[in-house]
Amino acid sequence: MIAAPPSIAPDPIFHLIGLYKADTRADKADLGVGAYRSNEGKPWILPCVKAASERIQADPSYNHEYLAISGLDEYTKSASKVIFGQDSALLKSNRVSSFQTVSGTGANHLGAAFLSKFNSSKTIWVSDPTWGNHFKVFETANLQIKVYPYWDPATRGLNWEALKDTLQNQTSPGDIILLHACAHNPTGVDPTHQQWEELSEIISAKQLYPFFDAAYQGFASGDLDHDAFAIRYFAERHAEFLVCQSFAKNFGLYGERTGALHIVSKTSVVARAVDTQLSALQRAEISSPPAYGAKIVAAILADPELYQQWRNDLITMSARIKEMRTTLKSHLESLKTPGTWDHLVDQIGMFAYTGLTPGQCQRLVNEFSIYLSSNGRVSMAGFNDSNVKSIAKAIDTVVRETK
Ligand SMILES: Cc1ncc(COP(=O)(O)O)c(C=O)c1O
């Protein structure tokens, strides 16, 4: 017998999506969900995905058999090349264990479960703020969560000195440090290349374990290599770290749950032992990962034409988002909305961290049917040519009237 469990609050983002769906006002806008939308406000199936999907279904040998525990081999191999680079020396060293996971969330979960069992420290440091689900995933894996400063509300940028100070003076050897590989969620603020280099030095000196979360490679800048800078820099300098890779955003495969976990070990011998431990964890949790998204990604990455189409699709998505940043900023500036709005274009990726207060966000939801997180985070993909002007007007109203 179990005691009746107490009810708890719903997940804020999924709750917001539910409210948006139930809203019958015609001019509603969804700036909450982290999913790409076309300029018509519709979900977008990437042309490379559509082509690969048709090819897979037309293949007479197509079936719905189980994948291996570690996933589809062609998929994990090519996914590791996307993140570490085609000619990665690290991959050639055979020190990487690559497992297909239930998207990026599953990679975070499997990585955390592994470290919770085998890392010397059970403490993980996450940025303040971070993706809300990090807390839930790491708590579930029995890691102890601590936060390091990241966002500076005064500059609407990186709180660099405080971040370094915390890592240097408050961490212990072996502690895990979560790093967003690019397009930090929710702030859209990334370290510069020079700051990544300094971070790498501090992390080595303090013997921290880097835990990279890479959910936006190529989606952020439009360039897969540019967005992998931090991971590839660390790959040349750190003997042990891991990478959680999601193909939800950059392939638009959200619901197909297509991701991978790459654990880098000191030697190839250790890596093969890690493979066996990941197999045991994965078998107990999900037995084997979902097949369809992995087949699509593997088909695209194996075909030079489809690969090129994917690169074009990434540019289509990232360019539209960048354009929306500029357009929103220019509407707010022409309205003379109090405050500065440069941060909208300085930030990168899916999200903008607007600086709107919880009260202002609440009014946008209640009065204007503009759905956004209460921390002021907006998905730039929710903006389009038809709604950006009216959303700017609504923001202008709440900024003037509400604290
Ligand atoms: C920082 C970060 N990590 C991981 C994920 C995982 O997403 P998914 O499980 O859909 O791949 C997301 C998605 O929003 C994210 O923003």
UniProtKB/TrEMBL annotation:
Aminotransferase class I/classII large domain ranges (all copies): 27-395
GO molecular function annotation: L-aspartate:2-oxoglutarate aminotransferase activity; pyridoxal phosphate binding
GO annotation, biological process: aspartate biosynthetic process
Subunit organization: Homodimer.
GO cellular component: cytosol
Cofactor(s) needed: pyridoxal 5'-phosphate
Organism this protein belongs to: Nadsonia fulvescens var. elongata DSM 6958
InterPro entries for the chain: Aminotransferase_I/II_large, Asp_trans, PyrdxlP-dep_Trfase, PyrdxlP-dep_Trfase_major, PyrdxlP-dep_Trfase_small
Keywords noted in UniProt: Aminotransferase, Pyridoxal phosphate, Transferase
EC number per UniProt: 2.6.1.1
Superkingdom of the organism of origin: Eukaryota
Family membership noted in the UniProt record: Belongs to the class-I pyridoxal-phosphate-dependent aminotransferase family.
Name of the protein described by the UniProt record: aspartate transaminase
